[in-house]
Fold this protein.
Amino acid sequence: MATTTTDESEHTETESGLELRRIALYGALLALVGAYLSPLYSGLTTAFKTQEAYRNTSPLQPPLEGFTIDPWVTAGSELAFAMVNSFAMVIPAAVLSALFGSLTAYGLTKVDWRGQVFVLVLFLAAVFIPYQAVLVPLRQFWSMIGLSQLHPRGELVELTITHIAYGIPICTILFRSYYQTLDSELIEAARLDGASLARIYRKIVLPLSLPMFAVTLIYQFTQVWNDFLFALVLLSNRSNYVVTLELNALAGSMATDYSVQMAGAFIAALPTILVYILFGEQFAKGQTL
Amino acid sequence: MDSLRNSIKRLNPLSASDSDFLESMPFWLPATALVLLFVYGAIGWNVIISFTGWSGLGQPDYTNFTLEMYRQMPSDPDFMASLRNTIALLVAFTGVSLVVGLGLALLVDRKIRFESTFRTIYLLPMALSFVVTAIFWSWMYASNGLINTTLSGLGLGWLAHDWLGDPRFKLAAVIFALVWQFSGYCMIVYLAGLRSIPNDHYEAARIDGASTLTLYRRIIIPQLRSSTVGATVVLMVFALKAFDFIYVMFGTNPGRSVDILAVTMYREAFSSSEWAYGAAIAVVLFALALTIIGPYAYTQYKRGAL
């Protein structure tokens, strides 16, 4: 009781101090919001400015005079085909690596046999490997397989398969940490009743995995859409360029026209920004393993 | 249930483990084969290529092996500059990102309103491609870009610089932008850590009359060790392969002040067709990554986290 009363008297004494602290806290949080959004803000204002307005006004100023949507039209028509290529690559790549990840994690978690931890260590290490260590062999490998000679779209297929393979380790690790929390009694009971592993996966594990599929699909979508390195090494035909590659080419050819560059950057980022805004929770989960 | 299962295992001459192993193969074997081929097979192949001396058009000669590629590294000023920059980037980027991320997490963790909005904004840069962020930051750092105009507006015009042209500032400019992109990630890792500290730890310290500073130093920071270790591994490994951002900003030849191994590797192999030398630089990068991942994977395994 005594502590409560001292607490209360202290409270009234320092109330104005607390109030000030609270204001300072929100002030700091808002200043940081300004700092974190400033690169996007300066990009957005510039993307709507005519060349004249770009030269005469600060990037802080909103595009009130000299407002134009021409940069968006120019960048959009340049990037359209590459956006289509990116979607054609990212959808199968995300779905298949998530599916492989789920099946693999199930096989390595809910069924026990010696040596599964060794396989898991291989997967965990593969998550962190610098891709530079595989680039030269990767290019050799695909030129030996020669899909790009078979079909003009072959390169894009090569890139998609590459993304599936390198996406499997992280998807497996994500599903694995989730499957460890699943109640194993249910699965054990089904096993004793003589259900096959495939049946248990379909009837019990897969339906319970849907929240984790959302996390891995969003992770892989963002990863694959944003990739630049694999595309740079594997794609040589301009018509197969994905959006990151084409955006880099656009920025190079319009080096002095920041308005078009900014509009292009926003167009290329739009799908991942939308996914992030709609599924922020799942995105954050994927990032923290 | 476990004991029942164990006794079944013991009774069964073909142990349950072995039959599980066979039955579970269709689930994990295809993916494991792909990973073995694309990741480990490719790494091994890359090591072999680094010993061949392969350059130019044509195919590597797998009958003649040499250590020449590794021998020439110490006398290659480009390589040595890249190695130095890589280490500098790794240390500065990781350190600053962790500090900024911890700061953000502590601010956000003070029972604020609109917490999820603040979190969403700080983490947003992580959702963007490096191609996109490199283009944004090229404009931020431009002579008439936001940074220089803001400095002039504040009467600090003398601080304005050609950030991406001056060799003294290039690497720092890259690190600053990458910290912007990754500190939100550190924030969510630390937030998860902060929220797993049991409440009674705070209560006990409060009752003992600990000041806020002591509270942070004695209770909060030590409890965040595993968050720090996890985030450090991710950041360091990222720093080793921070290729996209620098390549998009400066091109294949960013100059010695900002060249890093990942860029040097690409330039040697894919621009100059010095395939074996590029492969050898990649081996060095891989070895650096292993010194970071190895201990981490080992402790994860020891702790039974796998």
The CA atoms of residues 93 and 161 of chain A lie 7 Å apart. Chain A touches chain B through 99 residues (CB under 8 Å).
